Amino acid sequence: AQVTNVSGASCGTCSIAEALKQSLNTSFIRLTQSLKGGPQDVADMAHRLGVAEELPGVGKTLQEANGKPAEGITLGMYQSSPLDMATALATLTNGGTYHRPHFVEKVENSNG
């Protein structure tokens, strides 16, 4: 299937940040195609960025029945949790530095 962008949008060559901002499917497919390991490189990096390797009731993530990921991995074709996606994007925007996620129980000001 041919991958397109909403309303025919395009950026030619742009940064990952700009491609994310504009939600440019074609940029991410081209990125996947340019990697030596293709979709497997994307899956490996997603796991390093914090996406779970397994989900309860789902099993192994980011792969087809044959154990390999499809090219559409960069378009969100696989199930993942909101926390996984937030963690992965936070790691990406933090220059690749992973911080284990934690929940904030409350926020206080100087008056308590």
Automatic annotation (TrEMBL):
Residue span, Penicillin-binding protein transpeptidase domain: 12-109
Entry keyword Transferase: yes
Protein keywords: Glycosyltransferase, Transferase
Native species: Kytococcus schroeteri
Pfam assignment, any one: Transpeptidase
UniProt-listed InterPro entries: Beta-lactam/transpept-like, Glycosyltr_51/Transpeptidase, PCN-bd_Tpept
A single BP term in Gene Ontology: peptidoglycan biosynthetic process
GO terms for MF: penicillin binding; peptidoglycan glycosyltransferase activity
Protein name: Penicillin-binding protein
GO CC annotations, alphabetized: outer membrane-bounded periplasmic space
